[in-house]
Structure formats: C-alpha cells, structure tokens
C-alpha cells in the first residue's frame, strides 16, 4: 500500500498505534516522540522532508547511523553513547514495524542495525548440565528444601522474573490429576499479561510441595521463619529471599558462575534459542515489549552455532 504521506506525517498514526494496539503509556509515547524527532529533524536538515515510507532505503539509514555516531550532545558536549544511539534506532525500528502492521510499503525493520556496544555486559547463563546440578541441590526431604526445589524448577521452566514469581498465588496453580499441562496468566512489566507454561517435572514438584502445605496463606511460595505461622505477618517470600535461595544452592551445587534468578531466566531463553525456537516466540515467553530486548540472547546462540559449525560440520567426513 502506498499513499502521499511523508514519513514525518505518520507520527500521529504511529502514536495511536502505540496506545491502542501496543497499550503503551503516555510517558512511553512521549519517549518515542522524542527519539523519533531526532530522525525527523535529520530528514528535514538533509532535504528528506517529503520522503515517503517506500523511498526509505539502506543508504539513508546508513547516513543516519553515521550522523548519530558523530553527533555531539548539546548538554554534555560529548558524543552519544552507543546505548543512547540505540534508543533512537529502536524507536525508528518500531516505526517501521508499524508500517509492516499497517501494510505500508517501506524498509524492513531488520534493515535498521543497532550500534555495537563493546561495553555491554555479557549475558551470563547456565549450561543445561549446570542447571541440572542446581535443580538437584535442595534436600527435598525437608519442607524448605521441597519448596526450594519447586522454586528453582519454576524459574527454569517459565523464565519468570523474580518479581513475577513471588506474586504467584496458590489458587493459580490448578493441577488436574488427569493432565500434565499447566498454563498460568501473569502480569509482567508495564502491566503486560502473558501466559507461562510449566514442564511435567515442574508440575510434579509443585504438586508435591503443595500437598505438604497445611497453612492457609494465599502465596504460592512462603517462608518458614520460626513462629511466623502464629502471627498475622505475610508469609509470602520477597524478591530478596528468592535471590538468597538461588545464591545458596549455587554454592551447594559448586557452580563456577554466581547465578541469580535472572541468570536462570537467561538460561531459559538461551536454551529455547539453542533448540531452534524463533526469536519472536522467545520474546513472548519472556514478556518483552520490544524484540530488541530479546536480541541480546542471539549473541550467545550465534557463538554456539559458530562453534558447532567449526567443530562438527564436515569434520572427519570430507577428504582434504
């Protein structure tokens, strides 16, 4: 589909799309407007004021990226950080995703490459055998160990954020005797609702844990502080408690990496990607609003693919 609107003239439509179809807040829309305005100003300064979406090409995007790379912040008098450059580029990519949604001919969102930031923190994750050691670390003959096994299994099975985990309630975990499936709706960042799924073994450990519970607390995961059951104090575990629990079993399992609940979330995501799950689906599993957030994991899996190709492809099977 084509029409006579320039890219700049699509801003009001794009903001309506962010509000209605993506459910973003007014503040977030303001941020998108601010980041896109730099692109619009650059278009005007470079005689692209009337540029139509279908005329946007790789060469124009490249020139804009060069501009961002060499641009000096008027306040700090310093060049833009790579991470700041990427905010502008992600906003532009979102505009192109809007064009795709509305069947408006333009450059593919993937044509907007993000700036490589060498200062980015490396994504830390556990290999599957390390995850297994961690999951087996709790002593399940005790009620605390049984709870902790259920916590660790849930973190790896669902990829939940720690805040999402502690907000789970018992009434959400409806395990049917005749079924090995469990799907639960959770509310994540930005009030975004998504479904999470539990593996067969996680369902088994949750059922075992819940069968041992004799209290009436609403929370799925509770603390067993001595005497707390005799008070009106909430027994729901806090994010800090979960972090301490994970830290405890990392030490017991003798893992070389100081894993956190978020490391388990990273491990969940990299395991999915390593097994061929599409990046868009991983984005849905994790509850990311923007695909750019999920793309941090591709650096890990790309390295894995490179190593597999180097070590296995054609090795010892082709003559020199």
Task: Give Rg in angstroms.
Answer: 24 Å
Order of helices and strands: HHHHHHHEEHHHHHH
* Number of H/I helices: 13
The largest sheet, given as strand count, sense and whether it forms a barrel, is: 2 strands, antiparallel
Per the principal axes of the C-alpha atoms, what is the gross shape? elongated
Q: Just give the CATH class of the largest domain.
A: Mainly Alpha
- Report strand order across the widest sheet: 1-2
Description of the molecule:
This protein has helices at residues 11-20, 26-45, 58-70, 82-101, 128-136, 143-158, 162-166, 200-211, 239-253, 261-274, 279-286, 291-294, 298-312, and strands at residues 183-187, 193-197. By secondary structure, it is mainly alpha-helical. The protein has two domains: 8-111, Orthogonal Bundle (DNA polymerase, domain 1); 128-308, hpI Integrase, Chain A. Helix 2 (26-45) packs across helix 4, helix 5 (128-136) crosses helix 9 (239-253) and helix 6 (143-158) runs antiparallel to helix 8 (200-211). The mean pLDDT is 86.
What topology emerges from the helices and strands here?
Elements: H1 11-20, H2 26-45, H3 58-70, H4 82-101, H5 128-136, H6 143-158, H7 162-166, E1 183-187, E2 193-197, H8 200-211, H9 239-253, H10 261-274, H11 279-286, H12 291-294, H13 298-312
Antiparallel strand pairs: 1-2
């Amino acid at each position: 589909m084509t029409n006579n609107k320039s890219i700049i003239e699509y801003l009001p439509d794009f903001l309506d799309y962010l509000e209605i179809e993506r459910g973003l807040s007014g503040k977030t829309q303001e941020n998108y407007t601010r980041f896109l305005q730099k692109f619009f100003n650059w278009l005007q300064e470079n005689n692209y004021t009337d540029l139509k979406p279908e005329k946007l090409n790789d060469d124009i995007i490249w020139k804009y990226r060069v501009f961002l790379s060499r641009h000096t912040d008027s306040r700090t008098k310093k060049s833009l950080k790579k991470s700041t450059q990427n905010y502008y580029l992600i906003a532009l990519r979102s505009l192109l995703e809007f064009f795709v949604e509305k069947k408006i001919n333009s450059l593919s969102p993937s044509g907007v490459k993000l700036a490589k930031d060498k200062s980015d923190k490396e994504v830390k994750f556990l290999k599957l055998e390390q995850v297994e050691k961690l999951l087996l670390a709790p002593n399940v003959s005790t009620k605390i160990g049984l709870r902790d096994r259920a916590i660790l299994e849930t973190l790896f099975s669902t990829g939940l954020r720690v805040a999402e985990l502690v907000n789970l309630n018992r009434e959400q975990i409806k395990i049917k005797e005749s079924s090995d499936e469990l799907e639960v709706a959770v509310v994540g960042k930005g009030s975004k609702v998504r479904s999470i799924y539990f593996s067969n073994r996680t369902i088994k450990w949750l059922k075992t844990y819940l069968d041992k519970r004799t209290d009436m607390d609403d929370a799925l995961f509770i603390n067993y502080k001595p005497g707390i059951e005799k008070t009106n104090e909430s027994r729901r575990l806090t994010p800090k408690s979960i972090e301490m629990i994970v830290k405890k079993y990392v030490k017991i399992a003798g893992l070389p990496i100081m894993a956190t609940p978020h490391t388990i979330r990273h491990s969940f995501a990299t395991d999915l990607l390593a097994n061929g799950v599409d990046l868009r689906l991983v984005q849905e599993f994790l509850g990311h609003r923007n695909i750019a957030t999920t793309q941090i994991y591709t650096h890990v899996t790309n390295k894995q693919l490179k190593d597999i190709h180097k070590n296995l492809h054609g090795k010892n099977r082709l003559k020199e």
